[in-house]
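Example 5.3 — TetR/AcrR family transcriptional regulator
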Amino acid sequence: MLEAAQQLFAREGLGVPLDEIARRAGVGPGTVHRHFPTKEALYLAVSIDQLEHLVCDAANLVADDDPAAVFTLLSRMMANGAENSAVKSALTAAEFDLRVVAPDVAAALTGHVSALLDRARTAALVRDDISVADVMALVAGAFAAIHHANAQTSPARATHLASVILDGLRPRS
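Solution (predicted structure tokens):
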């Protein structure tokens, strides 16, 4: 259900009826309504699911030896934000903060970002004055930039904006 919801929200926006999500997921409408009594509950579940996927990706990158892996993860995070901007906007409007409603998942992601950032800093791939708080703020800012540029439906434009932001992490020449 979450995968069907995420795909439909990304492609068709937040106005997708829960019954259509049920149909695409191959379940009855009652099943969706029983698990997600409101559309906001479904938005939240989709966002937490996406965050959990990012945590898995981050853990795999931490296990790898690539000193530039922080850029890979941050690019994925920004792409995910672009793809799911409608859901993120709905959560903001509903005053949901994923750091509050899913603190363990958010903390795990931040911990992995911190480990990857430290590795990149040691390899002189990231400026010394960049903190994990800076990086997380930049990712959040990237979501706003992508939305402002109306680049949610243009992966090339969203990728360009993300690369401009990520370039700011690199050491000055």
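Remark. The CA atoms of residues 39 and 67 lie 40 Å apart.
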